[in-house]
Amino acid sequence: MDWLGMPIPTTAGEKEWLAERLSGNELFEGSDPFAHCYCGHQFGYFSGQLGDGRAISLGDIRTPSGDIVDLQLKGAGLTPYSRSADGRAVLRSSIREYLCSEAMYALGVPTTRAASLSVAETTVARDKLYTGNVKHEKCSVVMRLAPTFMRFGSFEIFKEQDPKTQRAGPSTGLK
Fold first, then answer.
1. What confidence score (pLDDT) does residue 1 get?
2. How far is CA 39 from CA 36, 45, 49, 126, in A?
3. How far is it, in rounded angstroms, from Cα 168 to Cα 153?
4. Kind of pairing, strands 45-49 and 55-62?
């Protein structure tokens, strides 16, 4: 099977080259990483500015079939929108993302696709049940693919002050 219509690496050197890029340790040539600012609603109310807290977009590529695909690393570390978190993902959440995206794809639901899952030796402290029982878990990174990572909230950054929450988008008033 090909990866994005391209041959799968066969030599140790090719595999290492690809693994370094899929994990976020190295960048693909021409990548210009960025995190996306967006706004949104949570629990029925406008929350104001959100953003890619642990997702780093690398840019897009054109596949041999002519499709354009955006590449994004999820769990690779801090972004300007990480708030008080570390931007890292743990293995259990990355496995869940990988499996759910593939299940949704198999069901015909348009969604992101997980191209790879990389596991690091690095660990982070997490309290998965929020009970005060903190444990160290291995970090991981999911390389996600989509036609675009733009979302409805990408345009809500221009939203005027919400009458219920008194929050506004960070780009209010810009024309």
1. 40
2. 10, 11, 4, 26
3. 12
4. unpaired
Amino acid letter at 101?
Answer: S
pLDDT at 174 over 80: no
Helix, strand and coil content of the chain, in percent to the nearest 5, comes to 20, 35, 50
Residue 143 φ/ψ, nearest 5 degrees: -85, 115
| CB neighbour list of residue 84: distance below 8 Å, 6 or more residues apart | none
Strands annotated E in the chain: 39-42, 45-49, 55-62, 68-74, 89-90, 113-126, 135-146
* Res. 109 pLDDT band, cuts 50 70 90: very high
Radius of gyration of the chain (CA): 18
**C-alpha distance from residue 130 to each of 34, 93, 122, 125 (Å):** 31, 15, 22, 12
Rounded to a whole number of angstroms, the distance between the first and last alpha carbons of the chain is 47
Q: What is the pTM of this model?
A: 0.83
